[in-house]
TrEMBL record:
Primary gene name: LOC116326463
Membrane topology: Multi-pass membrane protein
Keywords carried by this UniProt record: Ammonia transport, Cell membrane, Glycoprotein, Membrane, Transmembrane, Transmembrane helix, Transport
Main location: membrane
Similarity comment: family membership: Belongs to the ammonium transporter (TC 2.A.49) family. Rh subfamily.
Localization per Swiss-Prot or TrEMBL: Cell membrane
Protein name as catalogued: Ammonium transporter AmtB-like domain-containing protein
Amino acid sequence: MKDSVSLKVSLPVFVLVFEVIIIALYAVFVTYDDDTNAKLQNNETSPMENSLYRDYPYFADVQVMIFIGFGCLLAFFRFYGFGGMVFNFLTATFAIQWAILMQGFFQFYYDGKIHLGVINLVNAEFACAVVLISFGAVLGKTSPVQLLVMASLEIPIFAVTEWAVLKYIRINDAGGTILIHIFACYFGLGVTFMLYRPSLNDGHAKEITSYHSDILSVMGTLFLWVFWPSFNSALTFKGDDQHRAILHTFIGLSSSTITAFALSALFNKRGKLTMADIQNVTLAGGVTVGASVDMMISPVAAYALGVMGCTACFFGYKYLTPFMAYRMRIQDQCGIHNLHGLTGIISAAAGICAILLATEETYGPSMYQIFSHRAPPEGDPRLLELQNLIPGLKPGLGRTAQEQALYQVAAVFTTIGASTVGGLLTGLVMKFPSLASPSDKNCFDDELFFELPSDFSSVEVPLTYEEKGQMNPMDTKV
């Protein structure tokens, strides 16, 4: 049996074909937005009024999360550090390029062009984060070609879902709980369900960590932890809304972190800390505050959400992940259902409660900015009164708190349904033999796809019964 998979044809062909497609689409559809177009600027224009200075810090922060945070976090396997970090790099770069187009096509429908600026890049990074979260479910079990195929299909499915939810259901989701975390989770679970490998339920000899790989993974956690407030606040209203979002995210992360340490020691048989808990469970609070991150939920609520998210995430890793693998054919390699699915649902529920409790007494007239769909519709005399208090306030839909809460619930189920179906179909495509999928024996091993340095040492994995039956007598086993 061959112990390596050649990417000599499949990877270059896929990349070159998509590069030709992207070049053609960029040439036809993509242009500069107003803040990057020289014809719309002059010597009287104040440079500091350019949106660059408002949006670039958030773009840079999310870049760090995408390429360093996720990259290091996914490098926790002893023999798959290159794969976790480098395939994250490859997939993220591709996904951002593709997301600019896929998300921009809805702008093209209205404007005839895709107007590109820094804020478009921020939105594309969020779409990229969706792909990287889903990647965690199949880490170590897929080829780079399969990952690019997954990104190429997930991005348009996400873009359509995002557009439909925001345009027709119309929800509050400042931190991307529903449209990023929940979507990415159930899409990834759909993919890994289709790529189910029965022999991996009993573990794999290379599915182990090392001292150095765990340190590298914790570095990724720290980068994500530090920059998560930017992720949650990037698309909120500037000013007090963004201020609250940063505070709530920090408080939620802080409470989930110390709770994770306590739970890790408490439930370890020898009373010691487990690195997997530190690498993942500590981040739960960043997700659980997401849906209500810009609302007046109070600091204590953010703290409680961090504790709740951490607890659900911890027990999900301990009990739910093994159950899903054995009973539901869902091998969630990085436990994305715990860190993004369970916590996402808690966050969505908290957001619904915050919407139901929101009143003008608490928020003042700005309630109709934060909950824009509750603003009076065009022609309502109340709208004119509010516009005198808040110049530029746009007409809303006149929804009540109860109506908006029901739309939030509808968005959760719509997102779960669309992402799950999309993931199942994508997983089906990823099973094509031409996509260089690794065998069960060669999962979690960099040696399959990389030229490795001399100090790399792997382990021998016994052949399964099925693999022995497929061996050519002329092949030799290393």
